[in-house]
TrEMBL record:
EC class name: oxidoreductase
Lineage of origin: Bacteria, Pseudomonadati, Pseudomonadota, Alphaproteobacteria, Sphingomonadales
HAMAP family hit by this protein: Azoreductase_type1
Pfam family, one: Flavodoxin_2
Keywords: Flavoprotein, FMN, NAD, Oxidoreductase
TM region positions: none
PANTHER family attached to this UniProt entry: FMN-DEPENDENT NADH-AZOREDUCTASE 1, FMN-DEPENDENT NADH:QUINONE OXIDOREDUCTASE
SUPFAM superfamilies with a match to the protein in the record: Flavoproteins
Gene: azoR
Binding positions for FMN per the UniProt entry: S9, S15, R16, S17, M94, W95, N96, F97
Official protein name in the record: FMN dependent NADH:quinone oxidoreductase
Quaternary context: Homodimer.
């Protein structure tokens, strides 16, 4: 079992999302091989200019310049190494109701037709990550996951659930770590509740 941990918090110390993720990882069966990917030091290909034009050329089977072809080769390698894992752990802070831009960059890199999904002219989409499992550990200062009125502003876990579903991930669990700001006892309770849920999921991984 190979698990990829996408770590989206740039905080070197005291990351709430990473702390819960580490509790999850510590409770996994010892046979699990874990790859830690720090999204803030990962060298991700840029998506811009000619290579985006080249994407449409490649989709239509047209030739592209060698440098564009090489850039798409680099994208394909990132997508392939992502799919080489059986399961995913995404630990992330909420940033402005969504996810940090480095995590969005990763999603944009790997979510390519023919790499992580297939679609046909009739609009049918098939995710290529079928059979895989994911856990989202979503930290936020505000108490998301408890109040439907507030949850309509959640473009963090809801977005990641939609994305993972789109690429075909079969089983998706989310653990909200919130609130991470406010009264000390409330934050401690949120950390304990989230860690317990994460550990329970790990035992069944
Ligand atoms: C740039 C930035 C934007 C943030 N935006 C939100 C937000 O929209 N909603 C929220 O509840 N918390 C927001 N926060 C707070 C973080 O989500 C919160 O501190 C979280 O616990 C950070 O997770 P980490 O410690 O794993 O990095 C923001 C923090 C930063 C640095």
């Amino acid at each position: 079992m190979r698990l990829l941990h996408l770590d989206a918090s740039p905080r070197a110390n005291r990351s709430r999302s990473r702390e819960v993720a580490q509790r999850f990882l510590a409770a996994l069966p010892s046979s699990t091989s874990v790859t830690h990917a720090d999204l803030w030091s990962m060298n991700l290909p840029t998506l811009e200019g000619d290579m985006i034009e080249g994407r449409y050329d490649l989709l239509h089977g047209n030739p592209v310049p060698e440098d564009v072809s090489n850039q798409w080769g680099a994208i394909s390698a990132v997508a392939q190494s992502f799919l080489d894992h059986d399961s995913f752990l995404i630990s992330t802070p909420m940033w402005n109701f969504g996810i940090p831009y480095r995590l969005k960059h990763f999603v944009d890199v790997v979510t390519q037709p023919g790499m992580t999904f297939r679609n046909d002219a009739a609009g049918n989409v098939e995710g290529l990550a079928a059979g895989k499992r994911a856990l989202i550990v979503a930290a936020s200062a505000m108490p998301f996951g408890q109040d439907a009125g507030l949850d309509i502003l959640d473009f963090q876990s809801k977005y990641l659930e939609a994305w993972l579903g789109f690429i075909g991930v079969t089983q998706i669990d989310t653990v909200n770590v919130s609130p991470t700001f406010g009264a000390e006892d409330e934050v401690a309770k949120a950390m304990d509740t989230a860690s317990e849920k994460a550990v329970t999921l790990a035992r069944d991984w």
